[in-house]
Amino acid sequence: MLLLAAVTLLPSLNARGQSAGAFSRMGFGARGIALGNALVADVSGSASPYYNPALAPFTSGQNLQVSVALLSFDRTLQFLQLAAPLQQRAGFAVGLIHAAVSNIDGRDAGGFHTADLSIDEYAGFLVFGIRLGGRVTGGIGLQMFRSDLSEGLKAVNSIGLDVGFTVKISEKTYLGLVLDDLLARYTWDTSGLNGSGGKTTTDRFPLRMRIGLMRSFLEERLRLFAEYESRVSVLEHVSSSVGFLGDEPVQFTDRTRLTFQENRFRFGAEYQILEQISVRGGLEQLGADALEGVRPATGFMIEQTVGMLKARFEYAFALESQASGMMHLLSLRLFL
Predict the structure, then answer these.
(1) What's the pTM value of the predicted model, to 2 decimals?
(2) Domain count of the chain?
(3) Shortest CA distance to 27 belongs to which of 336, 316, 333?
(4) Is the dihedral of CA 7, 261, 228, 315 positive or negative?
């Protein structure tokens, strides 16, 4: 509880720029992004436990999900997940997220083209959740992050931890709570690029607290989702100055640790037109600054039996902020 209070009460300053591991916070699959990523309390059985480890016990049957996102500016994003319930009291999920940027124009100090560069980032996760009573579930998620930015820069790895809970408030209303990316950080060593001029830098992942609600209507054909996130980023500001030690000029380096806190909101709605067809819509605030805008999204799901397997085809379309392009996502989920 002290940690939750600390996250909530820190001074509200606007964080600028992207923090480490930004790709892992874009969402998971077509359904999640179509619903504005507001799935911290989604106990319908369709949400990925990536959003909240405590959702694992609600998983509706053993299933394999593959998703692909098409983005602007030569970016790609893929998702893979296997999830299953465990004897009606627990559940697990294991998965992988891969993000990449290709066709980056590499140039030397003279401005001449040298090579086409690319970067790759990965987030693997293992999630386990269990029912703690008739109304409460809890879960824990272990994540492995890897970032490979340059041939001359050694790839970095990190471990993160997620802790989550869900609470049944009424027959139609659920509450979800998650602490994300505990312990996660990248530590870079640039001596391979700059030799003796290199240094070691640590980029911490933001500490995130997410809390949200899901409420169902019309005999669970309509579901509404809302989520609030408090995000804390700790950054290091390095500045240099020249002073005198006796009569000799000396360069001094000052390091200051800065803490930024920002709030974000997400909303989503899902309506089941027929047993095999659903439509979705969502709205996600992408940054603390109003100029960073929001990301509207929409999508649908079609379910079809193929032989002995039940298959779900899902599609999502989202507009990215600041006119940076359109996002298309395709997901295929097979119930084994």
Answers:
(1) 0.85
(2) 1
(3) 316
(4) negative
